[in-house]
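Closing statement on the iron/sulfur cluster sub-project.
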Amino acid sequence: MLMLVIFLPILMIIYSPVKIVLGSLNGVMTFSSVIFISWMILSIFAGRGVSCGYLCPYGALQEVMGGWILNRKAKSSKATKIKYLSFACFLGLIIYSRIAMGGVRGFDPLLISSQLNFVGINSFGVMFIVLIFMVGVGLFSLLGNRAFCCYLCPQAVFLNIANKISRFIRIPSLTIKAVPDNCNDCKLCNHACPMGLEVESMVNKTETIHSLDNSDCILCGDCIRACKKEAIAYSFNIPEK
Ligand code: SF4
Ligand code: SF4
């Protein structure tokens, strides 16, 4: 997480959701789009684990600021629904711009060589918007650890849809296995979860061994590391529907 934050000034040139939208508006494909599509494909086998859990630099920024520095949890469960609106706007904008621009007309990896005629800004303008986005995500951490992931990130919804499809067609994927018999209700997992989930309740949802099923779980494994009773573990199998 710390390494991702240290290298964020470079990583944000390579990956930013802002570049996905601006690339679409200009009719070109970017590295950001390729990374995003790769994460979606990976989420079929690993849920939100690879991208949100370990690779997204904006998730890392929030975890360092909201979790490590401020030590604050994102609490509002109702506000997590806002990200579906964010998802709808993001998807709608991409579909509209692809139709308006006649599909993909080229590949501009970093979005620095194109004349951005459609939106009327140059490559410096793009980097300025990317920078504003990064600062905005960081400031969102004031609402709690990974507050942007919980409340606003459209990418989370895309990844969840891909993972739901994998469950539906029964492809093996990474999950968190719960063994309720081992749990002593210490709730250390609740304190460890960066997404503010009630992990202990999920573990004890039924008395039999099962997979945790929560679309906000990023499969980071912090609960596994916190549990002293081996009541939670990574598992790679065909999850229950
Ligand atoms: S940390 Fe382990 S033992 Fe403690 S409540 Fe969570 S699952 Fe149960
Ligand atoms: S439930 Fe466990 S794996 Fe999922 S986000 Fe919380 S700590 Fe990470």
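The beta strands are 28-29, 106-107, 173-178, 210-211, 232-237. With this model delivered, the sub-project is considered complete and its resources will be redirected to Aim 3.
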